[in-house]
Amino acid sequence: MPDRQLFLLRHAKAVIGEGMEDFDRPLAVRGEQAAQAMGRYMALHGLVPDLVLCSPARRTSQTWEIAARELPATEVHLVEALYDFGDGEALLQVIREQGGSERRLLLVTHNPATQHLALALAGSGNPVQRRQMLEKYPTAGLAALTHSGTWPDLAAATCRLDAFIRPRDLA
């Protein structure tokens, strides 16, 4: 069975929404630029998903729409359960249930759930990047992990952290 790749993309920088529902917050200009840069990086380094599972919040959808302009067309599912700010368990459940047979899966989600899940899954890999991920998972940050099982088998420490890319690394 071929290895599977999981990409965890935190939404890009959103506007501070005074008088606006959190769900409806759009990206800030800086966020739009970071989303585009991350999409370009993903294309350049072959981090191209077969399936995208995205929180339906405006800022996550916009992050993917902008990043996706740099990548081949990919099927996208908006998943209510990904609008989550918990310990990463809800995200893990979505991957197990909706990853299907896809080899390369991308989640576009929120913190702290994204950071918790990435840290929990990364049982091995680059220790410097793991430490960076532990310190801060910035907006538009991307973790690339490799898993040798199926999506239903995904569990803590079953992945290798291949890369952790922050927007400031792309400047």
From TrEMBL:
This is Histidine phosphatase family protein. PANTHER family: OS09G0287300 PROTEIN (PTHR47623). Pfam families: His_Phos_1 (PF00300). The lineage of its organism: Bacteria, Pseudomonadati, Pseudomonadota, Alphaproteobacteria, Hyphomicrobiales. Gene3D superfamilies: Phosphoglycerate mutase-like. It comes from the Bacteria. InterPro entries: His_Pase_superF_clade-1, His_PPase_superfam. CDD domains: HP_PGM_like.
